[in-house]
Amino acid sequence: MEQKLQGQVAIITGASSGIGAGCAKALAAAGVTVVVNHPVEATKAAAQAVLDEITAGGGKGMIYQCDVSKEDEVQRMFADTVKQYGVLDILINNAGLQRDSPFQEMTLEKWNFVIGVNLTGQFLCAREAIRIFLKQGIIQGRSRAAGKIICMSSVHEMIPWAGHANYAASKGGIMMLMKSIAQEFAPSKIRINAIGPGAIKTPINHSAWETPAAEKILLELIPYNRVGVVEDIGSVAVWLASDESDYITGQTIFVDGGMTLFPGFSTNG
Ligand code: BGC
């Protein structure tokens, strides 16, 4: 594979599984030194396994434990990354989770937990990245931008999702966070975009595709007629971090096999 991002450094939050792990592997294959973030002691082995696969393939990086919803932990992770590698080029603001519930039964704890990780976590990480990018400015020969942030959103930044109000609210919030800071920092040559994945086979939605019967129902929502895989997201993340997309900022790229095309209307309306 062409090493499109040779020598750059990225933090990928929530990289011990799912889309985060897929992005870490894709970036590493493109020449990036990756910080494989994971949240707690219990996720350390999984993060290490991701890093081991990366280093076995000739890639570089380290694992780093940090709960993205905690300000002091986030600040420590960004400071240690710069201490270790001297520079930061890319943030994949990915860490996210679901705690689903019928709305009338949704506890404040479930609401706060999802908003805390998915939205506040992206705020805290983006703020640290921006502070570093502003200080660094454009480094000649590295990238045309002074820094790149890719926020992992979802099709649910635009598709309402009954039974998942906390999650959908967090993704709608990520969209406007992303667009507002893209506007604020475009003059500083910092690009901020989002990826809106549809149904991608990861632990977060395992029940939606684990049996052929479940997968068949899920496919009714996907005109392209296959459930996505993390590699579908990783390749777009690499491109969005590269100079090939230098004129794109403030956009969500949906990577969803057409889930946002209102598939119910193909035979109705
Ligand atoms: C959710 C998945 C879901 C997909 C499509 C994602 O953001 O995390 O659980 O399968 O959206 O609905």
Describe this structure in words.
The structure is a single chain. The protein is of the alpha/beta class. It has one domain: NAD(P)-binding Rossmann-like Domain (Rossmann fold). Helix content is 41%, strand content 14%. It contains 7 helices and 7 strands; from the N terminus they run βαβαβαβαβαβααβ. It has helices spanning 18-29, 44-56, 71-85, 108-136, 165-185, 212-219, 230-241, and strands spanning 9-12, 33-38, 60-65, 90-93, 147-152, 190-197, 252-255. A 7-stranded parallel beta sheet has the order 3-2-1-4-5-6-7, with helices on both faces. Helix 1 packs parallel to helix 2 (44-56), helix 1 (18-29) crosses helix 7 and helix 3 runs parallel beside helix 4 (108-136). The protein starts with 8 loop residues before the first strand and ends in a 14-residue tail after the last strand. The mean pLDDT is 98. The chain binds beta-D-glucopyranose. The site of beta-D-glucopyranose has 9 residues, from loops.
